[in-house]
Amino acid sequence: MTPSTQDDPTLLVHAYLDGELDPAHTIEIERQLATDPALAAERDRVEALRRAIQEKLPREAPPPGLARRIETAVGMRHERSRPSWRALAASVALAVFVTSGTTWFALRPGPADTMADMVVASHMRALMAPQPTDVSSSDRHTVKPWFNGRIPEAPRVVDLSNEGFPLVGGRIDVIGRVPVPTLVYRHRAHLISLTAVPADAAMLGARRAVAGYNVLSWSDNGVTYWAVSDLAAADLDAFAKAFRAAGPER
Question: What domains can be seen in the chain, in order of their start residue?
């Protein structure tokens, strides 16, 4: 595969993960992944989605009679006749279309699934970094002002240390190529990433597990919050309730 360097780099990420790029383009996309956080997040999202598909959607055998129906549809099944090369080519094309089309419609993620994959990918990348925050402080009066000038609106920052969830700091993640604020809290030895994005009912999802992490989302005052952690689901629920019940910022 020799795509033009002017192609959408997110498409090249898929080709890169499929092993379809030539050596020159492989080197180029690896250079971009090292310098472009949005592109790296897309790579992590696709890898996480593939793992989830492999774990939860094992490959199934085609339904009985599929080959016969395809042959009949393209005119290959005629008594006392042999299929022509044209009919054979048509059957192959139809089989590829049917299998790939049904796979896409069965497995394509919805908006909430895509958002969950992206926030989990950002959480995983933060855990692999030298430190999971861009600004490290347990003082919300230090963390909140840090976001000013870096993103359009600073997030709501509350002190939950009395509830067992002390503030660690904050960082900026890139979700769908948009910089968004993420707060980091701690519960015992576990970190919680809380990402705030503009509210969108289509993206809101209930509690779920993605790539071994629990994800919980809710909306308040025009903002959708996505909490990600390897905490037990009950503990993540307790964190969400504490955050939502916290008094106004002072």
Answer: 111-245 (3.30.200.100)
